[in-house]
C-alpha cells in the first residue's frame, strides 16, 4: 500500500485495540481529510440529485393540501425504515392500528413503526425551535424506543457499554464492525454536531450524506441506531431547506440495495471510501426523488378521476361522497361508523354511501367479515404500496 492509499484508508478513522483484546473503530471528525474528491463523477451525481429533489419539492407543493399527503409519505418511510431492521408490519397494518381498528393478525411490531412516525413528527416539530443537535437526537431516540422491543435499553441515553454489528450469535471478536467504545461516544457526537452546524463549506446534500454515515459509524445507542440515522436524513433535508416537506422515503432505496448500503458504509471505515458512499447516497436521492415525484403526479390524477366518478355515479349523494374522499387522504382506513361520524348521518345513510363508494372502486372492504367491516382508500394506498414493491 502506498502513502496515498494509507492516508485515504485512515481518513475516516482508525481501529484501536482495547484492553480486553477486541478492536473498536474511532471515527475521525468530519469533513474527511484528505478532502473529498468532488470531481466530475460526483459532481454529476450531485447535480442530478439536486435537480430531482427540486422537482419533488415543487411537485408536492402543487398538491391541493400538501400536509395531507405528507401524512402518507411519512408513514411509508416509517414502514420501510423499520422493515430494514426486521419488522414485518405493512403500511396497511400501521394505518389500521393508528385508526384503532385492530386485527388479531396484526404483527406485534406495529407499535415500533407507529413510534417511528411519532419520532419523525416530534423531530419536525422540535426543529422549529431547536437545531439538529445531540440533545434533539436523544429526545427523538426516547420517543422511538418508548414501550417497544429494545425499550429497556436506555431510551434517549447514550450507551455506557460496548455494542457491535454482525450476524446473530457473533461476539466482539467475530463482529463485522465494532463502533467506538462508550467513553469515545460523547466526543464523536460533539464533533458531528459541530460539522452539522458549519458544514465545512460542502454542498448541503454532501453534508447530509456524510452525517448519516458518520452517525451510523458512531452507533451511539444500544438499539435504534439505524432508524435514528435515517430519520436524521429527513431532518437535515428539511433543516437545510432542501425539501419544504418530509416526502423523501429514502429507506426504500436502502432496503432495495441493502447489501450495498452496508458494504458502502463499511468501505468508508475500512478504506476511507467516502466518495463511493456519496455516489451511492446521491444515486438513491435521485432515484427516490423521481419516484416520489411520479407518486405526487399520480395522486393528482387519481383524485381528479374519482371526483369525476363520484359526480357521475352518486347523484344527490355526490357532495357527501366528495367530503368522504377528502377525509380519506388523512384517514385511509375507515369503518362505516367513521363515515357516519364524518357526515353526521344515519347508520343506514352511511352504509349506503360506503356501498356506493365501494362500487366505483374508491373503497375496498379488507376484512371479509359480515360485521365490523373495514374499508381502505384503495386507489390511494396502492400508489404507495406498488412503489414500495
Automatic annotation (TrEMBL):
InterPro entries: Fic/DOC_N, Fido, Fido-like_dom_sf, Fido_containing, HTH_DNA-bd, SoFic-like, WH-like_DNA-bd_sf, WH_DNA-bd_sf. Gene3D superfamilies: Fido-like domain, Winged helix-like DNA-binding domain superfamily/Winged helix DNA-binding domain. Coiled coil: none annotated. Pfam families: Fic, Fic_N, HTH_13. SUPFAM superfamilies: Fic-like (SSF140931), Winged helix' DNA-binding domain (SSF46785). Residues 132-283 form the Fido domain. This is Fic family protein. It comes from Thiobacter aerophilum.
Amino acid at each position: 500500500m502506498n502513502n496515498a492509499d494509507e492516508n485515504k484508508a485512515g481518513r475516516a478513522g482508525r481501529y484501536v485495540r482495547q484492553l480486553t483484546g477486541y478492536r473498536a473503530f474511532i471515527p475521525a471528525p468530519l469533513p474527511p481529510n484528505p478532502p473529498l474528491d468532488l470531481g466530475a463523477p460526483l459532481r454529476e451525481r450531485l447535480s442530478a440529485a439536486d435537480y430531482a429533489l427540486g422537482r419533488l419539492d415543487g411537485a408536492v407543493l402543487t398538491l391541493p393540501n400538501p400536509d395531507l399527503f405528507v401524512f402518507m409519505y411519512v408513514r411509508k418511510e416509517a414502514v420501510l425504515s423499520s422493515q430494514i431492521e426486521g419488522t414485518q408490519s405493512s403500511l396497511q397494518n400501521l394505518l389500521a392500528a393508528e385508526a384503532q381498528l385492530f386485527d388479531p393478525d396484526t404483527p406485534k411490531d406495529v407499535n415500533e413503526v407507529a413510534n417511528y412516525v411519532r419520532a419523525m413528527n416530534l423531530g419536525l416539530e422540535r426543529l422549529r425551535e431547536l437545531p439538529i443537535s445531540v440533545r434533539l437526537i436523544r429526545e427523538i431516540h426516547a420517543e422511538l424506543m418508548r414501550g417497544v422491543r429494545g425499550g429497556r435499553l436506555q431510551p434517549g441515553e447514550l450507551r455506557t457499554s460496548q455494542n457491535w454489528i454482525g450476524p446473530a450469535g457473533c461476539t466482539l471478536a467475530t463482529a463485522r464492525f465494532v463502533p467506538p467504545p462508550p467513553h469515545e461516544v460523547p466526543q464523536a457526537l460533539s464533533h458531528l454536531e459541530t460539522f452539522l452546524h458549519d458544514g465545512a463549506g460542502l454542498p448541503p446534500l454532501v453534508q447530509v450524506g456524510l452525517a448519516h454515515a458518520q452517525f451510523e459509524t458512531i452507533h451511539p445507542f444500544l438499539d435504534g441506531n439505524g432508524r435514528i440515522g435515517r430519520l436524521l436524513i429527513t431532518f437535515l433535508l428539511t433543516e437545510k431547506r432542501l425539501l419544504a416537506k418530509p416526502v423523501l422515503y429514502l429507506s426504500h432505496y436502502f432496503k432495495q440495495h441493502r447489501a450495498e448500503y452496508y458494504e458502502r458504509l463499511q468501505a468508508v471505515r475500512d478504506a476511507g471510501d467516502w466518495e463511493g458512499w456519496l455516489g451511492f447516497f446521491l444515486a438513491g436521492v435521485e432515484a427516490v426523488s423521481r419516484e416520489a415525484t411520479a407518486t405526487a403526479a399520480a395522486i393528482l390524477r387519481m383524485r381528479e378521476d374519482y371526483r369525476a366518478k363520484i359526480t357521475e355515479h352518486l347523484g344527490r349523494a355526490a357532495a357527501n361522497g366528495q367530503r368522504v374522499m377528502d377525509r380519506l387522504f388523512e384517514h385511509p382506513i375507515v369503518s362505516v361508523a367513521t363515515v357516519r361520524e364524518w357526515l353526521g348521518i344515519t347508520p343506514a345513510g352511511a352504509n349506503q354511501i360506503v356501498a356506493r363508494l365501494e362500487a366505483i372502486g374508491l373503497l375496498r372492504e379488507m376484512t371479509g367479515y359480515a360485521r365490523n367491516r373495514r374499508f381502505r382508500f384503495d386507489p390511494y394506498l396502492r400508489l404507495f404500496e406498488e412503489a414500495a414493491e
